[in-house]
Design a protein that fits this description.
heterodimer, A: globular, B: alpha/beta, five-stranded mixed β-sheet, two-stranded parallel ribbon, 4 helices, about 25% strand, globular
Chain lengths: ~140, ~110
C-alpha cells in the first residue's frame, strides 16, 4: 500500500505523517483516521527522540499495508532498543489514566500510541527494532 | 507563529498560526507564548482555530505554559478542531485545561473572574 523511508528529523515526521494519513484515508475515516495520524506521529517522534537520540542522518523505514478489517503500520529503526520494562506491547492492559495525572510536560507518547491503535507489537532484532501498529475498524 | 490581540479588560488572545503543533514546532510556539507571559500578560486565551493537529509535544508545550502562568493568572484554550478535542480527551487534558468554543466565550469567562 505504501512504503517509505523517513529521515529521522522532526520536520520530516510531519511530512511523512501527512502522506501516510492521505493513504490511510482510503481505509480509515473520521476520528479513527485522526487516531491513526496521532499514533503514527507519536511513534515516529519516539524513534527520533529515544531510539536515535536526535542523531542526524538516521532513517526510519515505514510500511503501511491493508489487513483484514483495517490497516497495519510497520516502523523499523536501527537505533537503541526500547527499555524491556515498557508495557508497550501489553495490549490487554487496562488504560492507565495515572500516566496522565498531574501536569507533566512529557511522557504521554507511549500511552497515546496504546490508546490510539487497536494493537501494538514491538520486536527487537539483532540490529533493528520494529514497532507494529494495527488499526481495526470497529464493526 | 502567533498573533496577539490585547483586549481592554486585560486579557490577551494569542492566536496560533501554525496548523501542526508537534515536536518540530512546539518549542518555538512555547517560547513565543512564554515571552508574552513574561511581559506580564497573565490572562491568556490560546486560540487554536488554525491548529489541525496537536501531538504530545504540543500538548506538553501548553502544559508548560499553564504551569508558567500558575496561580498568577489564567491560561485557557479555545476553538479546538475535532482532532484536537480528541487529543485533549485521550490524555484527560480536558480535565486540566478550561476549553471554550471561541474567543468571545473565553474572554467573557475570564473577565468575570
Amino acid at each position: 500500500m505504501l512504503t517509505m523511508t523517513v529521515p529521522a528529523a522532526y520536520d520530516e515526521i510531519d511530512q511523512a505523517a501527512v502522506r501516510l494519513r492521505t493513504a490511510a484515508a482510503s481505509v480509515l475515516e473520521g476520528a479513527m483516521l485522526d487516531r491513526f495520524e496521532l499514533a503514527t506521529v507519536e511513534a515516529l517522534t519516539n524513534i527520533v527522540r529515544h531510539a536515535y537520540r536526535e542523531e542526524p542522518d538516521r532513517k526510519i523505514n515505514v510500511e503501511m499495508i491493508e489487513v483484514p478489517g483495517g490497516l497495519a503500520l510497520h516502523l523499523c529503526d536501527t537505533g537503541r532498543a526500547a527499555a524491556s520494562d515498557l508495557n508497550l506491547f501489553i495490549v490487554d492492559a487496562a488504560d492507565d489514566d495515572r500516566i496522565f495525572e498531574g501536569i507533566a510536560e512529557s511522557g504521554r507518547g507511549l500511552e497515546l500510541i496504546r490508546r490510539c491503535a487497536s494493537e501494538v507489537e514491538y520486536r527487537q532484532g539483532p540490529d533493528y527494532n520494529q514497532l507494529r501498529l494495527i488499526f481495526i475498524i470497529p464493526l | 507563529m502567533i498573533r496577539l490581540q490585547h483586549l481592554p479588560a486585560g486579557t490577551t488572545i494569542v492566536t496560533v498560526q501554525t496548523s501542526r503543533v508537534t515536536a518540530a514546532t512546539a518549542p518555538a510556539l512555547k517560547q513565543a507564548i512564554s515571552e508574552v507571559i513574561a511581559a506580564g500578560h497573565l490572562r491568556v486565551i490560546v486560540d487554536m482555530a488554525a491548529v489541525s493537529f496537536l501531538d504530545s509535544s504540543g500538548l506538553g508545550a501548553l502544559v508548560g505554559l499553564l504551569k508558567l502562568v500558575g496561580s498568577r493568572g489564567d491560561l485557557v484554550v479555545c476553538s479546538l478542531q475535532p482532532s484536537v478535542v480528541q487529543m485533549f480527551g485521550l490524555t484527560r487534558m480536558d480535565k486540566v485545561f478550561r476549553i471554550f468554543a471561541d474567543t468571545n466565550s473565553a474572554a467573557s469567562a475570564l473577565e468575570q473572574v
